[in-house]
Structure of Deoxyribodipyrimidine photo-lyase:
Amino acid sequence: MLFSQPLTLFWFRRDLRLEDNAGLYYALKSDNPVLPLFIFDRDILDKLPTPVDARVQFIHQTITALQNRLQQMGSGLLVQHGKPLEVFAQILKNLKFAAVYTNHDYEPYAQQRDAAIKELLAHQGIPFYTYKDQVIFEKNEVTKPDGKPYTVFTPYKKRWLLTLNEFYLQSYPTEKYFKNLASPGVLPLPTLSELGFESSKTSFPGQIVPEELVKTYDQTRDYPALAGTSRLGLHLRFGTISIRQTVKSAQQLNATWLNELIWREFYHMILYQFPHVAERAFKPAYDHIPWRNNEEEFAQWCAGTTGYPLVDAGMRELNATGFMHNRVRMVVASFLCKHLLIDWRWGEAYFAGKLLDYDLAANNGGWQWAAGSGCDAAPYFRVFNPSAQFQKFDREKLYVQQWVPEWESSNYSKPLVNHELARKRAITTYKTALTNYKNNL
Ligand SMILES: Cc1cc2nc3c(=O)[nH]c(=O)nc-3n(C[C@H](O)[C@H](O)[C@H](O)COP(=O)(O)OP(=O)(O)OC[C@H]3O[C@@H](n4cnc5c(N)ncnc54)[C@H](O)[C@@H]3O)c2cc1C
């Protein structure tokens, strides 16, 4: 690649699309030709457990499609593979950049990475411009009147809705400026196996959600046997759809669906404002619960052989497809933390390894909610009854029948714990730990 003038570099991360992309828009409006970059980040890939990871396969597919589209427009995508700091140090040796543009990423690892890149670039006098793209409101944009962050969802949601106006939903018309893309010639793309991964037969949900599904979301969303939710989690996670477009549809079609998208924003805000949640309980007292952490029971939970049909169906769905319905996520998570008294971080990590839509903020929020340690008012002594949940939300038994066909036969596992005894044990354990903590303050 030879260029007579300095380039603007645009770095794709959780925003893998050309349309309505804030950072890309501003890059394209800068004065120099724009070279798009994607890095297969070894710091992230090295932490993934197996050579088969459908998320890497999804990213690889998406990057291939982006590369093809950019080539059709006479441009290209520079795809690198390595540790971002080393990759940047290397490309800065070969190419001259006027500026680097990207979109914000709020996770603790990403923030450290970006700070290091910013410093490296600053040494060479190259500015690093970053933009909000994956949420409608970020950081301090929705706070209490005194400027402090909200820690409870309902008042946060009220303020979020009051703050929302058309300005925040305007799309970024990148297509007007595609002519400003650089023409780097044909650029190579590593294969999945060069990245150290194998492909699987996972089928990825599409980006087009039937309007009818969203319109009836509030009536169907709680029933795992129905195709009643959007399955857009994966696309929102990797930015293959725009949150602004999604919220606009939600506004028009269904307030309950919009509510879920606000939960997503809430958990992003919580992780940003209270980064300790990535490691510890939001409420410090809950770090003192004496978890039983029985490894055999954990293995049975993971495998979906606890003897509780709805729990087992959820875990088997997750293991087979990388997806689990939200109602069932709540039930299996509660079962792990309360019935088995296993540290919520074990479950959080298991989900992180399996969910296609895995997102640190939402997953952590969901797990802390289930453990009672999070930032909402649900009292710890409210323990889901997995059998009652099954009766209520899978009345026709279709979901359980699909994933646990043997559930009514003698081959089916005996319940790992007795519900009533486990419920009492959980409440006593929590109560004692929280009282001791309070008394020792
Ligand atoms: C223990 C636990 C772990 C979870 N882990 C994740 C995770 O890693 N990634 C993730 O995106 N969601 C997570 N959720 C939230 C929720 O279960 C999923 O977002 C939802 O099931 C995804 O299905 P969908 O795409 O069909 O969502 P829909 O119901 O159609 O909702 C649309 C979008 O809104 C967002 N959303 C919906 N519900 C929530 C919620 N409660 N919290 C935050 N965002 C929400 C998601 O981006 C979702 O794709 C978790 C929930 C629990 C209880």
Observations:
- The longest strand covers residues 34-41.
- The mean pLDDT is 96.
- Residues 419-439 form the longest helix (21 residues).
